[in-house]
Amino acid sequence: MTRPVFEFEFTAAPEHIDELGHVNNAVWVQWIQTIAVAHWHSVCDPTHHDAYFWVVVRHEIDYLRAAYEGDRIIGRTWVGEAPKGARFDRLVEFVGPDGKTCVRARTSWAIIDRTSGRPIRVPPEVIAPFV
Question: Which CDD domains did the record assign (predicted)?
Answer without folding.
Answer: 4HBT
